[in-house]
């Protein structure tokens, strides 16, 4: 086994992703390697998508998702599009079935380069999200939040897209809220025993939501695909929006459709930036020479 593994630095609407090729290897990307890569300005990232050999028949690869603080995530929409683009460029294949810790993901690269991922079925039960105590109606829960003064930031819709999300509906421009100040407080609120991704969402039309997200384990990001899916399903569930919406995040628009079969399909772009190789144990890395200008 080589000491180093290839990687591609990519982004999905500005969500910074490292796609690590761990196929044919027995080791994993360590939390220490993730933290070291994130500490370097050139490789700073929101998630690592580690592509492993398949574990289950009928899937192409097992994908492990690692946040920039070294913790594991169950789902990552923007990162999945990056994996699809990387593998489509390598193999010419257009349709993919992956396995993640949260289940099976089906994805497809379209002729125009956009990528759709079936993000699975949302869950709304308090144990599924999970919440620390019983809430019968998760379309809106009341939180005891001491240090946050804005009343709208006390009563989110909550959902699981494989990972936990809280969506705070606001009437004003999402940029007028200090997400960087209250995001970490809400991420770690005791009602979320596994922490949560925290988003503020403004509905601007029946088919349009503007969204900003403080990601669990990664902080402020320019895009969060699973948060866009969570906002779409919570918007439809609370009758704020239709079942197909454009969710505009700081990095650009994602189209989210909550289909009649209950699956949520996310469509958007992915972009390659540069390639290199890295040591999955330590995070020491170097850029591929053909990429160097
Ligand atoms: N950027 C992602 C979500 C990544 C996982 C999240 N931080 C978590 O820990 O749940 C996306 O595009 O969905």
From TrEMBL:
Top EC class for this record: isomerase
UniProt site positions, description: Could be important to modulate the pK values of the two catalytic cysteine residues: 165, 215
EC number: 5.1.1.7
Assembly and binders: Homodimer.
Molecular function per GO: diaminopimelate epimerase activity
Biological process, per Gene Ontology: lysine biosynthetic process via diaminopimelate
Compartment(s): Cytoplasm
Location, primary (coarse class): cytoplasm
Keywords, ordered alphabetically: Amino-acid biosynthesis, Cytoplasm, Isomerase, Lysine biosynthesis
Binding annotation for substrate: 15, 47, 67, 77-78, 163, 197, 215-216, 225-226
Pfam families (UniProt xref): DAP_epimerase
Active site residues of this protein: 76, 224
Function according to Swiss-Prot or TrEMBL: Catalyzes the stereoinversion of LL-2,6-diaminopimelate (L,L-DAP) to meso-diaminopimelate (meso-DAP), a precursor of L-lysine and an essential component of the bacterial peptidoglycan.
Reaction(s) catalysed (UniProt annotation): (2S,6S)-2,6-diaminopimelate = meso-2,6-diaminopimelate
Presence of the UniProt keyword Transcription in the record: no
One Gene Ontology CC term in the entry: cytosol
Protein name, entry field: Diaminopimelate epimerase
Amino-acid biosynthesis in keyword set: yes
Species of the source: Pseudaminobacter salicylatoxidans
Record-linked PANTHER family: DIAMINOPIMELATE EPIMERASE, DIAMINOPIMELATE EPIMERASE, CHLOROPLASTIC
Superkingdom per UniProt: Bacteria
Pathway: Amino-acid biosynthesis; L-lysine biosynthesis via DAP pathway; DL-2,6-diaminopimelate from LL-2,6-diaminopimelate: step 1/1
Record family assignment: Belongs to the diaminopimelate epimerase family.
């Amino acid at each position: 086994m080589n000491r180093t593994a290839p990687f591609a630095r990519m982004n999905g609407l500005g969500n910074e992703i490292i796609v690590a090729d761990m196929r044919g290897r027995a080791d994993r990307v360590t939390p220490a390697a993730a933290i070291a890569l994130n500490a370097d300005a050139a490789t700073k990232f929101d998630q690592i998508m580690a592509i492993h050999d398949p574990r289950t028949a009928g899937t192409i690869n097992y994908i492990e998702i690692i946040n920039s603080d070294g913790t594991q995530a169950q789902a990552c929409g923007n990162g999945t599009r990056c994996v699809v683009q990387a593998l489509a460029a390598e193999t010419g294949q257009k349709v993919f079935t992956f396995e993640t810790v949260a289940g099976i993901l089906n994805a497809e690269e379209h002729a125009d380069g956009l990528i759709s991922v079936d993000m699975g079925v949302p869950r709304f039960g308090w144990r599924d999200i999970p919440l620390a105590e019983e809430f019968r109606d998760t379309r809106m829960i009341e939180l005891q939040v001491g240090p946050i003064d804005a009343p709208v930031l006390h009563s989110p819709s909550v959902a699981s897209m494989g990972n936990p999300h809280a969506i705070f509906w606001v009437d004003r421009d999402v940029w007028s809220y200090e997400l960087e100040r209250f995001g970490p407080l809400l991420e770690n609120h005791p009602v979320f025993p596994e922490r949560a991704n925290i988003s503020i969402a403004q509905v601007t039309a029946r088919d349009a939501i503007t969204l900003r997200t403080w990601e669990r384990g990664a902080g402020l990001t320019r895009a969060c695909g699973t948060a866009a899916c969570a906002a779409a399903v919570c918007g439809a569930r609370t009758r704020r929006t239709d079942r197909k919406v454009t969710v505009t995040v700081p990095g650009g628009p994602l189209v989210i459709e909550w289909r009649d079969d209950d699956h949520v399909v996310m469509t958007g772009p992915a972009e390659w930036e540069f390639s290199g190789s890295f040591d999955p144990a330590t995070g020491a890395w170097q850029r591929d020479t053909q990429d160097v200008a």
